[in-house]
Four helix bundle protein
Amino acid sequence: MAYYNLEELEVYQLSENFGDEVWFLIQDWDYFAKDTIGKQLARSSDSIAANIAEGYGRYHYKENRNFCFFSRGSILETKKLAQKSQKQKFNK
């Protein structure tokens, strides 16, 4: 099995870019939207890459796998919050 640097992993690069895009979109929201769903959405989208990085830094496979599960949870949370923001028409 080849060993990759964290920054070379495509899943990590995609999750980093996704988190940056979410922050960019939230900046245009009004104060109430930013303060409620916006903060939670920013945290959950950044948590995707953060959990991948933390798991990648763990020595044991099972620890790495657990952080992948945490990252998957952050993906689902982000998806739900994005749906909520669309429903509330924060993204115009």
About this structure: The first helix runs from residue 10 to 26. Helices lie at 10-26, 31-56, 61-87.
